[in-house]
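Standup notes
- DV: blocked on the single-chain target, sequence here:
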Amino acid sequence: MASHEIEALAQALARLPGLGPRSARRAVLHLMKRRESALEPLLAALKSVSTRLSTCSTCGNVDTVDPCTICRDPRRDDKMLCVVEEVADLWALDRSRLFPGRYHVLGGRLSALDGIRPEDLGIDLLVQRVAAGGFDEVVLAMNATLEGQTTAHYLAERLEKFPLRISQLAHGLPVGGELDYLDEGTLAQALRARRPIS
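- DV (later): unblocked, structure below
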């Protein structure tokens, strides 16, 4: 049996996404065995982030500075804006290094079942950013869920009055995916989005 403090640490880690009770206990054992090389740097990093963490007032990203590092980057294309549901989506897209523009985080997606309405999200701030001018294209990078697509359609309607191109991420077959293993929704979207072979 571990002490109350060690058990509390394991329970705290088990609440993190992707970690269950067993994985959390293994992580605690790893941290205890490598106190100087793993535990102490982790504690210092957590303390530093917890005191400096903030939400970017421009785009909604989470960073230790406001405006965030992405919004401060002068190499970004100021004419392109990518709208995402959550910060995790922004980070995933930015990790790919394929989108050179700016971002806007909604903070969720429209959902009648969950009672999430347009005023509960960062949609008005998005409209204000677009109305201020400067963007040539807005990319709606919503998740391929019913709520995500509903949100994308709502945003397209709100933004259609502005003189810019509104685009959406393509959905369909993943690279290396086999048809037999795909769900009907993915197959249907792939068929709808088919294009000629040049």
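- Follow-up: The longest helix spans residues 35-52.
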